[in-house]
Amino acid sequence: MTMTGILPETDYDKGKLDDAFSTLSDALSYVPSMEEDISKHTTQFLRNIELSDEQEKVAKMSSTHLLVKGIAGSGKSITLLTRMMQKMSEDFGKRFLFVSFNQELVKDAENRFKQSQYYEQLKEHHHTVHFYTFHELAHYLLKSMGIPVRFFQTSHTHLNRHEDNVRATMLRLFDLLDTEEFKELPSIHTIKKTRNTVFLYEEFSWMKGNGFITLEDYLNCERVGRGKLPSLSVKQRRTIFRLFEHYVRDQKRDFYNRIDREDYALKVMENLHRLLDKNKYDHIFIDEVQDLQPMQLRVLVNINKGTLTLSGDERQRIYKSSPFSYRALGINVQSGNNVVLKRNWRSTFQIMKLANSLKFSRSQEDSRYDDEKYFPRQGDKPVIQRFTEYKKMLTEIGQKIRALYDANPEATFAIIHRQHDIQREHEMRNFLGRFFSFHTYIQRVEGESTDREKKRGPQIYFLEAKTTKGLEFDYVFILDFSIFYYPHKDEIENLKKKKLRTTNDYYDDYIEIEEKEKRILYVSLTRAKQAVFLYFVASKDPEETISTFVKDFDSKDYEAKGFRKTMV
After folding, report:
1. What does the pLDDT read at residue 277?
2. What's the mean pLDDT when you consider all of the chain?
3. Contacts of 419 (CB under 8 A, 6+ apart)
4. Concatenated DSSP letters for 105-146?
5. 403 neighbors 465 (Cβ within 8 angstroms)
6. Contact 112, 482 (CB under 8 A)
7. Contact residues for 527 (Cβ-Cβ < 8 A; gap 6+)
8. CA distances (Å), origin 35, targets 63, 89, 282, 482
9. Which residue from 390, 387, 395, 431 is spatially nearest to 542, judged by alpha carbons?
10. pLDDT value at residue 58
11. Strand 459-464 vs strand 383-387: parallel, antiparallel, or unpaired?
């Protein structure tokens, strides 16, 4: 694998992660004039959507690079789509790209676009418009260069299966540590002793995602976001990099040029000179930008010929950090080129108050928008309920959804889980199938649910927590709100393999895991428009089984069933 030319630039503060989401600016104060302003007609423009004044202003801003920030439910995705269609109305024969990591989110945007009453009119402007996940985009670009690669799906099941397969192939790397080749290299005793494939998988993914794929780059980089355990000296990095070289060779030789999900961006950058100008884009719109890796953003910058608009929410960042700032990646979203959407249009005050009470690091500016004036709609308090058996919990979900559906046949429902065991996930789906049939979000946004199908029963979606970003539902059921899944037991077990719990480094890494897991819970909570229910199972001692995250909540902000608030 060749070098992609990614090096940290001198403008980031060494040793610290640049806050990629820049400070709040007054960019909303400037609104350029336009011959045709379709954002003023949003009731026709996007079905059942009407933009606020601040969203309209964002749609009309003239910035070449623009970052749209906002809390969950503030309408970032809708604003991004509006801005794209506004740009389409102003020009002819251009290439437009709407891109994100999440397949469901991309399909939802494409569906809204095609349902717009302006869709047929915009066809007359003869634009080329693509709605892609990043991996769909990379597949398309590489194919246009004559480079065949397999299609990579970003569904929860496929990502888990891919990770399991990669970690299995890494086991052979540990055997190399006993060979003559590695005797002269610094020892990595702890990693070897525990055969820690999780560490190697995450380290190699981080290296590829940030473009640190030469020895020089890897030795000189700041390992931002990689935690403190296992402790890894610069000298020991030489050993890790030698293993990395063997892994890359194995990919090409023994596994028939298999590429990992991080390799798609590297491969595009490696062959960028072969990309024809006609296959680049005049306008690119990136949703949930915090989910994309630096190399993926680098690709998007390099295939862009005109404007670049990004939207995201720092609170929903659940992936590994990077030492790169936006500016270092060629994206200028400093003063005057970023805006904040402050008001929540989705969730009730009660839901947002509970979500915002989760304690994880956020910027001072970001915390300013916890004020209740930004989410004025009232509703019921979230419910946290304990069950003595799993079947009783699932039965309650079935009966609750049926009652809510009878009261409102148009309501949508999400059942959000954290299962990594595919068999266990199937068992849960099969049990709930006694009450109703499930839809997939892809079916919903592609319009596969006909009116006749809707009359058969409620629209219910069974989703893994990390796949829900950018989506919304009337009612949300969060399963397994216990110490085993919030934080997820797999994350804690992997940390225990690295070092004894008595060290300060262990504590620091545990806090980092907790923060990530709280962000996942925050995302799940803020998918709900009307009400949210957090359920868990405990045959005894529920106050000891419930997730420790409950301690972040004010007991007045939720209704407790089956356990005592005063004991948690």
Report:
1. 94
2. 81
3. 425, 428, 464
4. HHHHHHHHHHHSTTHHHHHTTT-EEEEEEHHHHHHHHHHHTT
5. no
6. no
7. 414, 416, 468, 471, 472, 473, 476
8. 17, 10, 20, 56
9. 387
10. 85
11. unpaired
Position 257 pLDDT exceeds 90: no
Residue 324 and residue 8 in contact, taking contact as beta carbons nearer than 8 Å: yes
Q: Which two tokens stand for residue 34?
A: 């336009």
- Omega into 186 within 30° of 0, i.e. cis? no
Per-residue pLDDT tens over the stretch 413-453? 999 999 887 788 888 888 888 887 776 554 554 454 444 44
Mark out the alpha helices in 344-389 (DSSP H runs). 349-356, 364-367
- Can you tell me the mean pLDDT for 249-259? 72
Structure token pair of residue 506: 């262990």
Distance of CA 438 to the CA centre of its chain: 23
Residue 67's SS3 state is strand
d(CA 413, CA 405): 9
Q: Residue 487 and residue 176: Cα distance in Å, rounded?
A: 34
Element (H, E) at 560: strand 559-561
70: enclosing H helix or E strand: strand 65-70
Render pLDDT for 194-222 as a digit per residue (tens, 0 to 9): 788 888 888 999 999 989 999 999 999 88
pLDDT reported for residue 318? 47
Contact 445, 114 (CB under 8 A): no
pLDDT at res. 51: 72
Strands across the sheet containing 383-387: 459-464, 412-417, 473-478, 528-537, 383-387, 559-561
Q: Provide mean pLDDT across the span 165-186.
A: 86
pLDDT of residue 155 exceeding 60? yes
Distance CA 550, CA 486 (A): 10
